[in-house]
Design brief:
The protein is mainly alpha-helical. 65% of the residues lie in helices and 7% in strands. It comes from Streptomyces cacaoi.
Amino acid sequence: MKTLLNVIWLIFSGLWMALGYLFAGVICCILIITIPWGIACFRIASYALWPFGRTTVQRHDAGAPSGIGNVVWLIFAGIWLTIGHITLGIALCVSIIGIPFGLAHFKMVPISLVPLGREIVPTDASTAYPRYRW
């Protein structure tokens, strides 16, 4: 089922989103100072191509530089990308067929809002969900 949803997503939404993130990543890498955001754009592009069966988790080893970078990203790109994902998610959730794709847009909100210090993992990985110690 994940493969079928990913193929449909790729045709109707994922390819265009991934191309946009790739273009932004190339621009960020051309401007030398913004290379960390360019690398983040490339990661988001791979996630935008194939979102079903994967999720994002926060890296605990990310330090203060990723936090500062996230603030800069939030101001210049994060807000606008998040508004776009929320708008498309709401529009797709209007129809019953579009609900899984709308939810995929909502799933991309955290990484588009603050991409530094996050990692994309398969949903069946042990790192996707925290372990609770009793």
